[in-house]
Amino acid sequence: MAKRTIVTDPMPVLKEPTRPITVFNEELHNLVADMAETMYDAPGVGLAANQIAVPLQLVVIDITPKEEERELIVLVNPRIVEAEGEQCDEEGCLSVVDYTATVKRFEKVRVMAQDIDGAPMQFTAEGFFARVIQHELDHLNGKLFVDRLSSLKRTLYRKRRKKQLQKENA
Ligand code: ZN
Question: How many Å apart are CA 115 and CA 62, to the nearest integer?
Fold first, then answer.
């Protein structure tokens, strides 16, 4: 296992479409192990493969708060097939530096995906878990949570980010 570097906005790989996974081999297991290590180290509750510059339809999620109770969820080629309700809460992202905002999401989603060995799965998620899934699936579609904000908020964020980057590169 190895920790990978998390890429941050505005790296192009975060905006590009991801490819479905068709081969379920040791390489995939290694990639998932690296993603889990990277997510736990950050720490974060979810990570999409394109956040470590691998443009594949793969996410890892763990919403358990404590290390002893870790429960890694691996979703390969996930998609939301049903959604209902509404929730609003503060969101941040490992690829969006020093910025959080309130984002509207579905309260409940039905997900179809494959597990790490390619077996199909289907489940319903609610509340915070549903929020994390929607956030990670957005990543796979080249979207960040800031893309879901009002254009005014998004413009302010972009200006701020530009200043940050200018400082970093100065
Ligand atoms: Zn994110």
Answer: 15
Q: Report residues near ion ligand 1: CB below 5 Å.
A: 93
Task: Kindly give the distance from the C-alpha atom of residue 47 to the centroid of ligand 1, in angstroms, as a whole number.
Answer: 7
For the entire predicted model, the pTM comes to 0.96
DSSP-assigned letter for residue 17: P
Compute the CA torsion angle 84, 121, 26, 46 (nearest 10 deg): 20
To which CATH superfamily is domain 12-168 assigned?
A: Peptide deformylase (3.90.45.10)
**C-alpha of residue 98 to centroid of ligand 1, in Å:** 12
CA distance 30 to 27: 5
Distance 24 CA to ligand 1 centre (A): 24
What was the pLDDT predicted at 27?
A: 98
Structure tokens at 118: 């390619």
Ligand 1 geometric centre to CA of 71 (Å): 19
Active site includes 91? no
Instruction: Say if residues 34 and 52 touch (Cβ distance below 8 Å).
Output: yes
Average pLDDT, the chain: 96
